[in-house]
Amino acid sequence: MTNHQGLKSRNLITFPLDIPEVEVISVEINERGDYIVTVESTRNNAVCQSCGGRITKPNGYGREIELRHLPILGHRLYIRLRPKRYECPHCNGKTSTQELDWYDPKSPHTKAYDRHLMLQLVNSTVEDVRRKEDVGYDAVEGAIDRCVHASVNWDEFTELEIIGIDEIAMTKGHSNFVAIITTQQTDGHVALLGVLADRQKETVRQFFEGIPSRLWQTMEKVCTDMWEGYANAVAEFDKAHPEVSIEVVVDRFHVAKNYREGVDHLRKQECRRLKKELPEAEYAEIQGVLWPIRKNSKDLTDEELKKLNRLFEYSPDLKLAYTFREELTSIFEMQLTKAEAKQQLLAWRDKISQSSLTCFGKFLTTLNNWLDKIINYFAGRFSSGFVEGLNNKIKTTKRRCYGILRNATLFQRLYLDIEGYRRFA
After folding, report:
1. CA torsion 343→344→350→356, rounded to 10°?
2. Any residues with CB less than 8 A from the CB of 78 and at least 6 apart, and which?
């Protein structure tokens, strides 16, 4: 600011306004302590709204506008401007109002202030930002709509080598699922691609069809859980486009969760049995095994190992199940080819089938149905762990914002939390 008309204090400092193509006419302070900076455009032309040509014949001014700008020294700052108007000699004298690049004609803010609001929204809520900035709720939501697409902008991507698909419930309980599509880029950054209305095969297939064809040949892996809708959607898309070759990788996390549940179920059964059969003092020695038995053996403390061994003395079946679980985990830790992994997994399956254990029955069915996609993990050891990490962010966003019901809103808020600092800082 170079003109301080209306300011009586001698303690003055100069700030660059950082708004192009304007001249500061005056600066004043209103009764609330807000700074009002009146400016005039230094550009001497406009674009005709009818023919799109550049026009230079002046025709007065439009109505005065006042735009919220970046705060200064803890005070609100407004830019006051009367846009110039110009007459077009090719459109029967029609006039057009000059539009400058630093504000949107339909916005109450400068573009710089919109970006400021976006930074405040990262990991926050509309209501919280509204209070801090003393603006309307609708004004914040309007800034979101101006700054953040409600769906993916494909121009931001040059490759989609690894895609992750997972779902999350929009309402409490296991219902009203939406599918979250992400990609892990070569630098490790996780980018949001889509929030789909549901997790049905046709919905997912339609999303893949909407990906620009220039990106198809860059798509190599789709990491997902064991939901047939996802796998079938990818398979159908792959089949419909011969130039595309996508490998579905069942996420190791979901495989591990499946076989670990069997051991956990057996633990509950055995603990109930032992509680009835053992004297109270003896049963007390094996209580508190929930977390130790869920750990991998290499992560157990001496005390936890002692307690587990005591439990296994009373339950040989549980010891056998725990041993088989550890063997399977070790297979996934090995650096194996797909062929070697398949051989190891089938050998493990056969040992389970020949034992007296039944706790792995559900997992054996899963293993038989998904074996080819499970062993795809060993070709590059890809997983959708990056998707699981994003799901935690989604859950936090939902809690923080007291529930989000529109998919487009969820996309915008997730995009802000993921990309906000990179894009608006």
Report:
1. -170
2. 34, 35, 36, 37, 66, 67, 68, 69
Q: Which residue's structure tokens are 């550049």? A: 54
Residues in CB range of 152: below 8 A, 6 or more apart: 192, 193, 194, 411
The dihedral sign for the CA sequence 122, 127, 129, 135: positive
3-class DSSP state of 157: coil
Token code pair at residue 298: 């290499």
Cα 414 from Cα 181, distance rounded (Å): 12
How confident is the prediction for the chain on average, in pLDDT?
90
Burial 9-27 (b: 16+ CB within 10 A, else e): eeeeeeeebebeebebeeb
Question: Cβ distance 162 to 221 under 8 Å?
Answer: yes
For 324, residues 6+ apart whose C-beta sits below 8 A from its C-beta are 348, 351, 352, 355, 357, 360
Letter string b/e over residues 64-91, b meaning 16 or more CB atoms within 10 A of that residue's CB: eeebbbbeeeeebbbbbbbbbbbbbeee
| Torsion sign over Cα 406, 408, 411, 414 | negative
Task: Over range 176-205, report the average pLDDT.
Answer: 91
Phi/psi at 294 (5° precision): -85, -15
Q: What is the DSSP letter of 174?
A: S
Task: Find out whether 314 and 274 touch, Cβ atoms under 8 Å.
Answer: yes
The pair of three-digit structure tokens given for residue 213, joined into one six-digit string: 């064809």
DSSP helix/strand/coil, 170: coil
- Helix ranges (H only) for 249-384 are 252-277, 280-284, 290-294, 302-314, 316-333, 338-354, 361-375
Q: Give φ, ψ of 165 to 5 degrees.
A: -130, 130
Are 229 and 208 within 8 A, CB to CB? Answer: no
Beta bridge partners of 54: 47
pLDDT at position 251 is: 85
Mean pLDDT value of segment 71-84 = 95
Q: For 42-197, where are the E strands, in sequence order? A: 46-47, 54-55, 57-61, 65-72, 75-81, 84-87, 95-97, 162-169, 177-184, 190-196
Q: What is the pLDDT of residues 354-383, one digit of tens each?
A: 999 999 999 999 999 999 999 999 988 876
Q: How confident is the model at residue 14 (pLDDT cuts 50, 70, 90)?
A: confident
